[in-house]
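STRUCTURE REQUEST FORM
Protein name: Nucleoside diphosphate kinase
Source organism: Neocallimastix californiae
Requested output: structure tokens
Priority: standard
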Amino acid sequence: MNEAEYDEDLRYCFNVEYYDHNADLIREYQLMFFPVDNSIEMYDIKQKKIYLKRVGYPGIQLRDFVIGATVIIFSRPLLIKSYGDKFTASKLISKLERALLVVRLETNSLLGDLFNFVIDHGYTIIQMRSVKFSDQAAQEFLSISYSSEDTNKYKSKLSGGLIYAFTLMKENCVNSLNSLLGPEDLNQASINFPDSIRGYFITDKENGFVHASKNLALAEEEINFMFGSYANSMFERTAKFKDCTLALIKPHILKQGLIGEIITAIIKGGYEINDIQLFNLETANATEFLEVYKGLMPTFMDHVNELISGASVAMEISHPSMNQEQIVTEFRKFVGPYEPCIGKQIFPMAIRSVYGYDWVHNALHCTDLPEDGPMESDYFFNILCS
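Status: completed
Returned output:
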């Protein structure tokens, strides 16, 4: 729906929180969003008065208001806690559905294309991770949606390789996602439906596997299995924590839908992605992670605010011919100077030069010092996941 189609009186209401560092307390507000002109208004719940009069804010869209996400309003990170009224809940809950997509890729050479595929088809990526299934985990997951016969049929495919799992959100998500899968016969899919998920992404016809949630009830059960509180004890982490560097793709790239292009560029550069996961960082996590860079960043809180402004994607990166010192040093050169304006002059084809536009919005963070590579990977793929 475009702006012209919105009713002038239509407004959505959300309960949000702001952590006030100076006062060391959480302030609660109601944030009203008017899609007709992308304006906002805020109400102070405790003081019972208008905090911010209605004002245009073109940098934000209705799709940014996801429960659990953070939006930045005039440099303040606001955590979206819940819907603020029954109207908003009824409109948005009924409008959007969630579904799980699971794909086994034989190599990660098509991972960037997979991101592009789901984004180009209008899906919002809510959660994402790479996983390695044990036989037991594969058995338990498949038994949610498959018969005993099909569970035994697919178990070895699910536990035999690297799996990428996505929680996707969209109107009519379950039906639309299943319509994109293509035939279960992988040979038929590649010949007659080459643009389907099975037809394009499954290159190993013997071991390939694709699954999408079959209905909303199963979707929630599958998502909880894959991303719930017990998920980390079910799956083997694929990070190596050795001879590695960390790449953290920043929220502005995900909002622009460019993550697939950056992943493809990294893979074409000869690098391997050992582990990958989407994170929604909170202020404390982002501050802790960036603490070692505090003296090097003249606008430290701007960097923190960028990391908490939306989802980011962490990747452990390695190279088959590089040791610990080499991988950090060479990958840092590969992505380009921290300041994109400088990079555009001397390394115009570097990732930051192409996709970044200032010191804060420079596409991605990468490890700066060789000895910090395993430590930064451990922070995301061990500490934050525990």
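Reviewer notes: Residues 293 and 300 are 8 Å apart (CA to CA). The first strand starts at residue 12 and ends at 20.
Form closed.
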